[in-house]
Amino acid sequence: MNNTYKHSLSTHSKIEQISVNRCFDGEQHYYRHESTATKTPMTFSIYLPDEALAGRRCPAVMYLSGLTCNADNVTHKAHFQQKCSELGMIFIAPDTSPRSRDGQDVPNDERYFVGQGASYYVDAMQQPWAENFNMQSYIVDELYDLLRAEFPIDSIGITGHSMGGHGALLLGFKFPSKFVSVSALSPVCAASESAWGQAAYSEYFGDDKSLWKQADASQTIADVGQQYPSILVDQGAADNFLAEGQLQTPKLQEACEKAQQPLTLRYHASHDHSYYFIQTVINDHIEHHWRMAQMG
Amino acid sequence: MNNTYKHSLSTHSKIEQISVNRCFDGEQHYYRHESTATKTPMTFSIYLPDEALAGRRCPAVMYLSGLTCNADNVTHKAHFQQKCSELGMIFIAPDTSPRSRDGQDVPNDERYFVGQGASYYVDAMQQPWAENFNMQSYIVDELYDLLRAEFPIDSIGITGHSMGGHGALLLGFKFPSKFVSVSALSPVCAASESAWGQAAYSEYFGDDKSLWKQADASQTIADVGQQYPSILVDQGAADNFLAEGQLQTPKLQEACEKAQQPLTLRYHASHDHSYYFIQTVINDHIEHHWRMAQMG
Hints:
With 296 residues, chain A is of the alpha/beta class. Chain A has helices at 50-53, 71-77, 81-87, 135-150, 163-174, 195-205, 209-214, 217-224, 240-244, 249-259, 275-295, and strands spanning 15-22, 26-34, 41-49, 58-64, 90-94, 153-160, 183-185, 231-236, 263-268.
């Protein structure tokens, strides 16, 4: 049973507070706002340590979630709050796509790896997706600016899990001026070479595979070269999606070697793709982004 | 997305493994078994640190969940795994009641605080409840013996949240030979004096209020006197159920004073009744049970 109450951090003209819960020495907030990028309402969660609640600028990390998830999964199950409370770090969890609600019908697909919950954080170029599925613009422009306007954010790092790990690698290297640090947990490393990503990109971009490559994380890293002092990637060695070829982890290693981008890639014996793995490694990611923010 | 695989800890004659996930240096398991106490299938989760997986006897803590919950809520949201991994502690989460499933129709009530998900961990004496709602016998006899037979458990402490906090206090003081330690988070402290508990007990015990008193945690503590070196209770000061009188926390203080039972009762400013509060204090509870197990 969640007990929520209203708490106004500041004058939020564009965002509506849904809930506030005290958690460690900070507060877990949820917000809703009308997005111009997706032409739908969007929700996100943000953990604000007491330093931020007191108005002091703090480093932030944005976490992009994986297929089928929304902001709830990571907010409830990843247990980032304790470490963020200790360090004084802000943690932001956007939704994974626009969604049908309030009578608005957003395009979808029966497959869990295409459509709602499966945006891949790109700007779709084909209909029916192009109308609402503009998650790259949403993340790196609209939400990014909104967060900086409404919360005392010093710098932003980007991370994510699975499809969201691909989004973090892709957006981190496409927009290095926006982010001070990049990491990923169990990421899809090359969407254009995984069955999940191929299904999604054929919908979002059509048959022109040069467009797929421009939205492929490993290809982007290879193309743009080193952007960060180091990036951290954790992967469960018993992850069945790794064995299935959905994640294409060696492609990331090759790309980083080509780009001369320092990469710490750790395989964890017996660990799988679940939030039990995410909670096992999340503290290391928060500390990675914290250290990079201090360097910046 | 959860990725589960089978892993056999030992020869489990009476319990069937549902899932195993690696988490920190240990494994989160789920089991299902046929209960003679409730005459239904029952499920529970158990976190086994590597020491236990290697067959070494470890202290355990059993966590009784609150109204509307099952084992999933605490297993996903409380974040006990990291501390249990560090200390080498087993964490057991039973369900909150028998449930209708597999075509079996178990009694229920429209109110969320009576019936399925709301057993109060007592043995009901009135029909239709008495047939299946024997959760006291399930916890302190059947599940207790089954756990000791199937897992390398050294000693068992008991804790819980809200209704489950009442269960932990009640069963801990009714059966002190079974448990080495007691704690509670945001507990209902006196079921017979809270509106939730009165509704449940009038169903489970009928109108004889002497039976309610025998199943009241604070009354039981006052009656049996000191049983533990100390008990730990954490309470959110902004918990709306505290303000509503459902928790009756001062009754626990009075009972412990009468019983000369040392009590550490901590109120936490701004914290509510949610799992965000539970995760904030759970490490202290695991450490409490760990210390008590070392003393025993």
